[in-house]
Structure formats: C-alpha cells, structure tokens
Amino acid sequence: MAQNTPPAAPTLPELIKHYQALTTGVINFELYNQMVHTHHSTAIEGSTLTLLETQTLLEKGLTAGGNPWSTI
Fold it and tell me: What keywords sit in the KW lines (predicted)?
C-alpha cells in the first residue's frame, strides 16, 4: 500500500522570494512609506488632509497652500 505524504511546506526564504516577485513593480514601498509617514505626522499636528490629498501634494511637489516647495 503506497503511503500518501503531503509535499513539504516551502521554506521561509522560498516564501519571501515568491512574495517579493509578486509585488515587484506593483508597489513602491519607499514612496508609500514616505506618504503614509507624512500623512500621519501632519495628522498628529492637526492637519485635516486625507491620505489621498497628501499623496497628491507629494506627487505634485506642492504645499497645502498650493505653493511649490522651493518657495518656502
């Protein structure tokens, strides 16, 4: 009688490599972390900007007043 054994579970390095391949080019984690950190930091200081508004300002290089960063 043949014994049915399940396949070995993938190792942690194999799983990491697999999931890194899935997210490559999909999410820029450095940019995402910068955006979220900025949003939360300004929210702590009382800003009412949404995460999307914060993202838009960072992507366009503007301040909340609409001025470019170079003018402040």
Answer: Plasmid
